[in-house]
Amino acid sequence: MRDYVGIATAYAEEAVADKKGKKFGKWIRLAGKRFLADLKRAKRKRPPFLFDEWHACDPCDFIEKLPHVEGKWARPEIELHRSHVFFVVQLFGFRNLDGSRRFTSALFAVARKNAKSTLAAAILLYCQCCEEEEGAQIISAATTGSQARIIFNVAKRMTEKTPDLQEAFGLACWANAISRVETGATFKPINSKASTQDGLNPSHVGLDEIHAHKSADLLNVLTSAAGARSNPLWLYTTTEGYTNPGPWGEIRQFAKQVLQGILGDSADHFLVVFFAVDDDDDEFDESAWPKANPLMDANPHLLKAIRKEAVEARQMPSKLAEFKIKRLNRPASSATGWVDLTKWQKCGGTVDLDWLEGQPCWAGLDLAANLDLTSWRLVWKVDEVYYTWGRRFVPEEAVRARTERGVVPYAGWVAAGLIEVTEGEVTDYQAVERRMREDIARFNPEVIGFDKWNAQEITQRLLAEGHPLIEFGQTTKNYHPAMQELERAYISKKIQHGNDPVLNWCASNLIAVKDGNLNMKPDKKRSPDKIDDMSTLLMAIGLSMPNGDQEDAGDFISSPVIG
Known about the structure:
Blueprint: H1 4-17, H2 26-41, E1 50-51, H3 53-63, H4 82-93, E2 94-95, E3 105-109, H5 116-130, E4 137-142, H6 145-160, H7 163-169, E5 171-173, E6 178-180, E7 185-191, E8 204-208, H8 217-225, E9 233-238, H9 248-260, E10 270-274, H10 300-315, H11 317-328, H12 341-344, H13 353-356, E11 361-366, E12 374-382, E13 385-395, H14 396-405, H15 410-415, E14 420-422, H16 429-443, E15 448-450, H17 456-464, E16 469-471, H18 476-491, E17 495-496, H19 501-509, E18 512-514, E19 520-522, H20 532-544, H21 553-557
Parallel strand pairs: 3-9, 3-10, 4-7, 4-8, 8-9, 11-15, 13-14, 13-17, 15-16
Antiparallel strand pairs: 1-2, 5-6, 6-7, 11-12, 12-13, 18-19
Helix pairs in contact: 1-2, 1-4, 3-4, 5-6, 10-11, 18-20
């Protein structure tokens, strides 16, 4: 047996050492850093999870006993590439304290023709044979029947070509299933139309080419059906794709936030290995191609195929987008986040509310519609340093929906006291108002800015009582000075936000839009997820600035009128 843990560790160390990104893309460098850090976490006196070498190596050994079923290879059995070992060792090697698998969700994103379907089929086959769950339902799922059968057919052919595997685990192959008599486990393909049938209780799901799903319907059906499983696996394998309203954009954003450390240990269940060229790489620079195509060093035919497509992409704009997506694993169109998260995360600091009582204070309010996030945020400025703290509110239904989708840890944030839940399907504004009044009485903000959307009732009551509320127009005129000031503050470490995970998440989502004069404001439409906490932070900072620092700010500040 090969030293698979040593291979994975060496791969991670090589990626982390590539600080200039000559061979490894940003996301793999971060994945390597996470793996090495997790190995250290597993050795703590009171570890959150363990790392077991046998569990890490056994699936690799199992997979390397399976045959190739497509193409011609130097040996009949699979030999895992280092990039695949890196993924499999993590997926199965990290264990919860009760012995179950730590990772219940895993994303393997890579350019086409890098054996992701073969890898997925082998992993799911290992789960059927070696994860002893009674009545396991292993599902290969996709939007169409033909796509769903890609992974299934590979697994079925592997089984058919390996009599020893059939005998050892009692496997039998059928037209639309692989069955295991001993445990009652089945491996089946399923598409979006068939997924509404009764009897679904998936234990392991391979969602192939998740970028092609035009809605979250299939994912939602499978997620809701899997509630009774104690150790499920959601395996996402994909290449990038064209923009659509499906779940891929949300999953991609979440995955990158996991690697950036935005979500802290609340995403310990989610494994991410994401191969892609970097944003500043020239798409026709061959030295950058291995970042999205890790198998290039083992498959000379892959380089030839990419070179051929690059020639066509240079000359035909219609093929350039396809080349970027399928060969470089770049999204069809991507907007750059406004916040430099590396610098932002260095501004955690301590936010001592007792010490901040009596200090100059400003506030921002963004009331959500229906299932959205409501944000109420305070800002203090002491000795030229900003301090910020706030509350977030969501209805019960939003927590349930987010938990089912599994890509933003609302439930974990609620349990940690970072988000307050209101009863029902929509946000309870009375609960929000009660909390606001508590904070107003304690901190006495000089001005409270608000987005007038949904705010009419609360703000009229508070204004009638003499509280200093003012509508903060959602325009570049009002936001631009605040965005400039916040950018200056976090780059120079003149703000402390306590490394609040929800605020960090909103910061990572924030996309800015500019007008003809290059003035900025948050762009809620283009931002990939919620930015409400950053909007209220910007409102409060904008109101804290001297009038002279904001164009026409005098009229804005002196006219607390609801339009």
